[in-house]
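Troubleshooting entry. Yesterday's outputs looked truncated, so today I'm pasting the complete records for two proteins to confirm everything comes through intact. If either block looks cut off, that's the bug. Protein one:
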Amino acid sequence: MSPTELDLPSDPDELRAFAEVMKARLVASEQALAQERKAHVATRDELSAARNAIKLTTLQIEKLKAQLAKLRRMKFGQSSERMTQLADQLELTLEDLEAQQA
């Protein structure tokens, strides 16, 4: 709305009161906008943290897969109960991480 479209009061006191109301509305609008911006930044930060957590879990899964593959190669190279237990334990950890990621 332009100032020419407004029905402005002709009385100076009424005009001052009108200006005060408009000023208060402007301040309220600016505060609401600032709160929306803060909420947007917080949401963006949460999304970034979630993406980083997913990346970390994915890297952990890949590391465990590599360790598991190495242990399996070692297992078939020499028979050792310790290697078998460690491989089984890594396999369970890997399954847990993959389930969490899903």
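Protein two, checking that the full record survives here as well:
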Amino acid sequence: MWYYLSVILALVLDQLSKAWILEHFEKFDMREIIPGFFNFFYVTNTGAAFSFLADVDASWPHWFFLSISLVAVVVITFYNRFLRHHGGGMLTSIALGFIAGGALGNVIDRLRYGAVTDFLDFYYGSYHWPAFNLADSFICVGAVLLIVLSFFNSGPREDN
């Protein structure tokens, strides 16, 4: 249950935030939110994280990233089901749900627009972190939560 609730939460918040950006911004519009630190800056990304392969003049990266994301969601869903039947905890399910929900949010963008909608722009002076979105944030929060949980679940195990 926690897995599916977190998938839905991540997916809905991601898609609502992107719908708001698409309704109120033109591509490359920027609004300063916190001077010297944070903007809304609407851009699109046909590649992966940090625009990896975005400049490739071919359609294969689109289908590659779309396929990898869908396969990852299926694998994560089955892994969550496995863990649920073998004593997996609520926080692990939430972390996996955030990763899957974030991946699905970006899949929806690739299917609808051919690119992922990014708009969160953090910076300091002339140093900018690449723009990203809530789906990316949910993926990162889920991954960090899994890493933290692994420290608590890494004790010696008794095998049968």
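Both blocks look complete. Sanity check on protein two: The chain has four helices and four strands.
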